[in-house]
Amino acid sequence: MQPLIRRSVRLLLNDEAVTLDRFPPDLTLLDWLRNERRLTGTKEGCAEGDCGACTVLVGRLIDGMLAYESVNACICFVGALDATHVVTVEHLSQPDGQLSPVQQAMVDHHGSQCGFCTPGFVASMHALWLNDPAPDGDDVDRALQGNLCRCTGYEPIVKAALAAAKVEPSEANDRLTAEVGTTTARLSALVDGARIEINHSEGMSFVPADVDDLAQIYAEHPEATLVAGATDVGLWVTKQMRSIAPCIHISHLPDLKSIESEDGGLRIGAGASYTATRAALAQLAAPLGELWDRIGGAQVRNMGTVGGNIANGSPIGDTPPPLIALGAVVTLRMGEERRTLPLEAFYIEYGKQDRRPGEFVESVFVPAPPEGAHFAVYKISKRRDEDISALCGAFLITLDGANRVSAARIAFGGMAGTPKRAAKTEESLIGQNWSWSSIQAAQGAMEADYQPLSDWRASSAYRMRAAQNLLTRLFLETSGAPARLVSDGERMVLEAGE
Amino acid sequence: MNKSFQPDSTAEKIIGGAHTNREHDSASKHVTGAAIYIDDMPEAAGTLHGYLGLSARAHARITALELSRVRDAPGVVAVLTADDVPGVNDISPAGLNDEPILASGEVKFYGQPVFAVIAKTRNAARRAAQLADISYEDLPFATDVKAAMEAGHPDVCPPLTLQRGDVEAGLEKAPRRLSGEMHIGGQDHFYLEGQIAMAVPGEDDEITVWSSTQHPSEIQHMVGHALGVPSNAVTVQVRRMGGGFGGKETQANQFACLAAIAAKRTGFPVKIRPDRDDDMTITGKRHDFHVAYDVGYDDDGRIGAVDATFSARCGYSSDLSGPVTDRALFHADNCYFYEDVRLRSRPLMTHTVSNTAFRGFGGPQGLLGAERIIEEIAYQLGRDPLDIRKANFYGEAGRNVTPYHQTVEDNIIERIISELEESSDYQARRKAIIAFNKNSPVIRKGIALTPVKFGISFTATWYNQAGALVHVYRDGSIHLNHGGTEMGQGLNTKVAQALAEEFQVDFATIKITATSTGKVPNTSATAASSGTDLNAMAAADAANQIKDRLIDFAAEKYSVAKDMVVFEPNRVRIGNQTFTFAEFIEQAYIGRVQLSAAGFYKTPEIHWDRQTGRGQPFYYFAYGAAVSEVSIDTLTGEYRVDRVDVLHDVGRSLNPAIDKGQIEGAFIQGMGWLTTEELWWDDKGRLRTHAPSTYKIPLASDRPRIFNVKLAEWSENRKRAIRRSKAVGEPPFMLPVSVLEALSMAVASIGDYRVCPRLDAPATPERVLMAVERLKAGG
User: Fold this and answer.
1) What angle do CA B530, B531, B536 make, to 5 degrees?
2) Which residue numbers delimit the Aldehyde oxidase/xanthine dehydrogenase a/b hammerhead domain (chain B) (predicted)?
3) What domain range includes position B504?
4) How many CA atoms lie within 13 A of B350 on its CB side?
5) Is the pLDDT confidence value at A487 over 70?
6) Mean predicted confidence (pLDDT) in B308-318
7) Do B449 and B534 fall into the same domain?
């Protein structure tokens, strides 16, 4: 059945209702805010979602409840913002100009120097303030992973975030809280179940009504670019000036956001964000939660999707190594037709996946690690947080009663043209005693599995040596020995004046 | 002063005077997004946008430059090449005529600007810039120091030698001797606001340029040069930058000149803003250095002789490489006395973007060389490097003359070190760490305490001058203008605090205004940590001129002695009468007193003769020290900074909160330089780390898990700098050398602290692991 078609995107920008009916598919929220709306508080620092100077809040109704998340406006497309509330830094102080508690704390703690990154920090901190009533120092660090400051060294900013947390958001001190009722009503009124089609000389933008509608549009336009979180596609536009027309926005589709327990694992809709999936995956296997916390910054985790990370086929891709090790199965859909395949089979070679024109990743099933198995994920990067892996290794090792390896699934990113299993390494371990000598043999076998590249993230020699050493780490950890630096909650933030 | 602001004329103290924690003058605007940067300014109708077309070769002759597809692209209004520069196609700040605005004939680095597109939108200009068809004939190239040395590259400017004593004899007679080498990486500034300029054409030959620059007077000079017009036709304005760090001392010239040329040519305002990738590709960086050292010392670790050569990657042109490599030598002693010494610089030409100023200006690399020597000696002797440091500090007469023959007269490093050693519990922690390492196979810890001594003044003596313009209006409000530029360091705030103190008025009485070449002429770059020292003194001079006139006026009008006219908080007491400041100013206006003054300051006492390598280039020194503790993972090279304690000397601080912010910020920036910030060129000579996705500056989570920063509150500048304060911008940048050395100690634990790990910078996890592997293999 052909759904209702609307030819405009409707959203709230600060306190104004906006209807957009003519824009190119690649119009970013940042360019629209700065160039067309003259809301210049939001800055461009990198145009690739790494510096956070462009951070804004985006409010959405989730099951009727209004929730705000931080987003990188530089790589967020306007077409994806139907029925949302976009909040820029200009809207965070009170209508009479009084600073928000976050803004006031930033002033009081000398949290700005050059000031260029500051609006982005204020937006990220405002999101933290609304969403976490009692953050500790590590929570603040995590919330600020996506914001770069080159002047302050961060200490005063973190102090400001902690000071602001002592003030509870209320109708009296927070405009968003005061307006939550009216905003909810205004957003609800924008939801009409329509498909959106925007015609523009530079190409079409589609916003499907639901997943079935997506399947239909994509089957009709197999050349279209599917845009979920845009944390990758956004860069095609901002960095490579590639055309993404026609484009189909899918990040709003509730059916693609489902996260459901299913026999022995979790089924994750392809449109579920890192943020949305973190808790369930951490419960399934704790190392996944730790890894998720090191993917991008908070903004990227709010936008980016597990399905997108799988589908873009990066040789590094942070999520595929552990998902492959766990034996994840991906469901692809074209029109009404679905097929499934093991995730590792989806990756054919560098830049090539087993995905036909018009076919899209609908969901991925992630099995829980078997009872008693050792599951570990180790990401190695130049900078600990918000960096792309130099290498990322995932290990699922099952031992039998005699301490022999009965099953081994090992996968690495950053070691080959695709995320890839270490077949020879696995083979050398299976059937052997879980011992130092088996590990050493496996380290030798790994050289037959991978011939890593040298690039700006790491040299080939380092990648190989570190990958081999991760087997040592795994072995030590399975025997209970401390074998890595962990975030152990020692973070001390001194109060001002101490 | 907004209309509702009423200063309290009965107060005991003014609000926001000197030595108070006044917040940054723009803090409220920063947090609300109301602070205006150049790209935020409303654009006049018809404003055009420029974008640059770049070389795709590291070194080549251009055999054909075919730009017709660029010209025909939608929205394009003009395409500029070297031939379109009406004046001189050169922006060499050294005056060596080696830095074209646009390359012609030959390109000398990958990414060198070859042409500029001017179009109706930035997007159109950016897309069109991709359409050039350029043919090249490749020429040989070398991008790093070693390759340039091997290829016999020339120096980009004359090298410097500093010497004192007889180094050959000193090396000869030393009981022990060692030699080695060190590689030190460069650094991108990564100011959050990228380069930008907007030029608006005026009548006749006039033009106004808004530029994100630390050096408006040089922009004025270069734009005049490029347009072929005198400086009086060019006005340059800058309200604030979104960060500078030295990256906007000369690097803004190119964009300002092109915007001006395009504006004059088209008759429309023109704005040029490269994206982050182009910004990082086109603009200069901190110099990489190769240090070769030969050292004579004794069994107590006391250094007798040092012979060292500091060779720098300077890029294809001179830019500021002369004074940068000079300053490396000026800091290659750090806090240590070398009895016989020879320090040589080699500013090498490489086929890379021309290296430029960056916080510390060569000083950090020089200092790092000195600290490597200390480490080498310590590991040779099996001693704590701190003991070796103490054995070599500058001391009394006979041990207090630098390699450039300036006597160190204000040395406070021993007091700083001993206080920090105690407050950080250094000795006990070092013992505990050594014990921990014995029982920890994978995780190893390290701790290091390193000192800093940094010379304050431009070594180009004539730069040490500044001007200010102060107006007092009839309502008692004050307009402050000076030649310095605000890039986040709080300069405007500190200068206004100093001015408020002179007039005894609340900070809010003063309006800080954009730097303009039309208000204060012939200014120096806001650089060398000197912004407050120079400009606050000039502003104080202006205030004192006005006050002298006001005192004369009041003494005459009220027939009192001059010393009976006293400026008290927000009021003036004349004999037994008191008026509010505003009332008094109105009287002075009616009495026809000139209420405006141009202030001026030049730093006294300094001189420097580069030919002989002798002089007193620095007015004074700033000191500091830090203790850093780290943990490393010997399986992967990953690490964490566990704790840092800093004690730093800013004299009598004008604003302790701002100064502390400078110290913390400099520390993290310096830590980035020495740890995760790695510039990586591929085999085609192309920089591949040109955006935050690939170039990793520290995050909040990288800062030390415990970070104690204290000012040496007892310190007072022995010189008459503004209210006995000291400069703060650059000196603390070198405190995180302690992080590198702590990492080095953690690695050294593998070899029982008897082998110097020779950990080069940046110490990425890869370099740490490779050093661990080297020591595991026996050194």
Assistant:
1) 110
2) 32-140
3) 27-33+465-602
4) 29
5) no
6) 98
7) no
Q: Which of B730, B741, B766, B773 does the annotation list as catalytic? A: B730
ipTM: 0.97
Tally of CB atoms within 10 A around A498: 6
* Chain B residues with beta carbon closer than 8 angstroms to that of A462: 637, 766, 769-770
Residues B659 and B741 in one domain: yes
Domain finish residue from B552, B570, B602: B602
**Residues B722, B635 within the same domain:** yes
B548 pLDDT band (50/70/90 cuts)?
A: very high
Q: Do A150 and B703 touch (CB under 8 A)?
A: no
Provide the chain A residues 367-396 that lie in CB contact (below 8 A) with chain B: 378, 380, 382-388, 390
H helices within B472-627, ranges in order?
Answer: 491-503, 531-557, 581-590
Does B730 qualify as catalytic in the annotation? yes
Q: Identify whether residues B597 and B620 lie together within a single domain.
A: no
Would residue B10 count as lying in a domain?
Answer: no
**A483 touching B, CB under 8 A?**
yes
Between strands B620-633 and B639-648, the pairing is antiparallel
Percent of chain B with pLDDT over 70: 99
A contact test, residue of B635, B662, B674, B694 with most A CBs within 10 A: B635
Structure tokens at B502: 């002179």
Q: Is B181 on the interface with A (CB under 8 A)?
A: no
Whether residue A242 lies within 8 A of chain B, CB to CB, comes out as no
- pLDDT tens digits, B565-611: 999 999 999 999 999 999 999 999 999 999 999 999 999 999 999 99
Write the CATH number for B93: 3.90.1170.50
Residues 424 through 463 of chain A touching chain B, CB cutoff 8 Å: 455-459, 461-462
| Residue B151 within a domain | no
In a domain, B104, yes or no: yes
pLDDT tens profile A250-288: 999 999 999 999 989 999 999 999 999 999 999 999 999
Q: How many domains does chain B have?
A: 3
**Domain's final residue, options B273, B306, B321:** B273
The pair of three-digit structure tokens given for residue A372, joined into one six-digit string: 């008693």
Residues B248 and B301 in one domain: no
Interchain CB contact of B241 with A (< 8 Å): yes
Could A115 and B678 be called an inter-chain contact, meaning their C-beta atoms sit closer than 8 Å? Answer: no
Q: Looking at the domain assignment, is residue B4 inside a domain?
A: no
Q: How far is B23 from chain A (nearest CA, A)?
A: 6
Give residue A496's pLDDT band: very low, low, confident or very high (50, 70, 90): very low
What pLDDT is attached to residue A493? Answer: 52
- CATH number (domain holding residue B531): 3.30.365.10
Q: Burial letters for B682-697: b for 16+ Cβ neighbours within 10 Å, e otherwise? A: eeebbbbbbbbbbbbb
Q: Are residues B577 and B451 in the same domain?
A: no
Q: In which band, very low, low, confident or very high, does the pLDDT at A498 lie, cut at 50, 70 and 90? A: very low
High-pLDDT (> 70) share of chain A, %: 97
**Using alpha carbons only, how large is chain A's radius of gyration in Å?**
23
* B636 & B520 share domain: no
Q: How far is A161 from chain B (nearest CA, A)?
A: 12
Q: Are residues B488 and B616 in the same domain?
A: no
User: Hey, is the C-beta of B684 within 8 angstroms of any chain A C-beta?
Assistant: no
Q: Report which DSSP code applies to A494.
A: P
Residues 6+ apart with CB under 8 A from B612: none
Interchain pair A384, B637: CB under 8 A: no
pLDDT at A319 over 50: yes
Q: Express each pLDDT in B699-711 by its tens digit.
A: 999 999 999 999 9
User: In whole angstroms, how large is the CA radius of gyration of chain B?
Assistant: 27
Beta carbons of A388 and B242 less than 8 Å apart: no
Q: Is B80 helix (H, G, I), strand (E, B) or coil?
A: strand
pTM tops 0.95, yes or no: yes
* Closest chain A residue to the Cα of B33, Cα to Cα: A41
Average pLDDT over residues B415-428: 98
List A residues 27-56 in contact with B (Cβ-Cβ < 8 A): 34, 38-48, 50-51, 53
**Distance (Å, whole) CA A367 – CA A369:** 6
Residue with tokens 């406070």: B412
